[in-house]
């Protein structure tokens, strides 16, 4: 008896979910804002940043990214100033996933052309649950920092916390981008 009741409950839940969550669990509701791609130094690589907000009651994951700029787009985190490729990034329910300088970012390798400031790069974000979202990401100056980006945690990143006169990307990213270049050069 008990088992049958449970099964019925599960079926009811599943059906509810299929009907866009009548059962109380809402689907992820994702919105992308503040996307930008700092103009890269050359065609070898570029990074992009944005905020993905989830107003739904269900968590989701950013699982992959495609773009007309590159066939090799990966998702990176930054740990101890080193970039690390990850399979996915969590987007919490009623929360947000922040991609920002010195932290999580999208990485484009082997660019098909060098994007210039003022242009837009078409990027498609793929998620575990939600439908893919297409974003026209504006190309900004190499040193662009979005206004009100105070939530990155590690303080000012543009003013020589490295002191090595880096002129293009955020110091952290650039330092580790060199690792990337080497890594890829070994192919
Ligand atoms: Cu990276």
Automatic annotation (TrEMBL):
Signal peptide segment: 1-20
Region (Disordered): 144-187
Domain of life: Bacteria
Keyword list, A-Z: Signal
Database matches in Gene3D superfamilies: PCu(A)C copper chaperone
Entry-linked SUPFAM superfamilies: DR1885-like metal-binding protein (SSF110087)
PROSITE patterns: PROKAR_LIPOPROTEIN (PS51257)
Basic and acidic residues compositional bias, start-end: 166-187
Protein name (database record): Copper chaperone PCu(A)C
Organism: Streptomyces paromomycinus (Streptomyces rimosus subsp. paromomycinus)
């Amino acid at each position: 008896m008990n088992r049958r009741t449970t099964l019925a409950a599960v079926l009811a839940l599943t059906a509810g979910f299929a009907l866009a969550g009548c059962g109380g669990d809402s689907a992820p509701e994702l919105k992308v804002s503040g996307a930008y791609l700092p103009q890269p130094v050359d065609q070898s690589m570029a990074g992009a940043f944005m905020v993905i907000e989830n107003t739904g009651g269900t968590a989701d994951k950013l699982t992959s990214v495609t773009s007309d700029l590159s066939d090799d787009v990966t998702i990176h985190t930054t740990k101890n100033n080193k970039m690390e490729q990850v399979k996915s990034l969590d987007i919490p329910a009623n929360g947000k996933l922040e991609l920002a300088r010195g932290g999580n970012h999208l990485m484009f390798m082997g660019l098909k052309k060098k994007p210039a400031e003022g242009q837009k790069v078409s990027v498609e974000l793929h998620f575990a649950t939600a439908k893919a979202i297409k974003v026209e990401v504006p190309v900004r100056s190499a040193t662009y920092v979005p206004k009100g980006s105070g939530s990155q945690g590690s303080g000012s990143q543009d003013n020589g916390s490295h002191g090595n006169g880096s002129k293009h990307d955020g110091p952290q990213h650039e330092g580790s981008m060199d690792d990337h270049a080497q890594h890829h050069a070994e192919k």
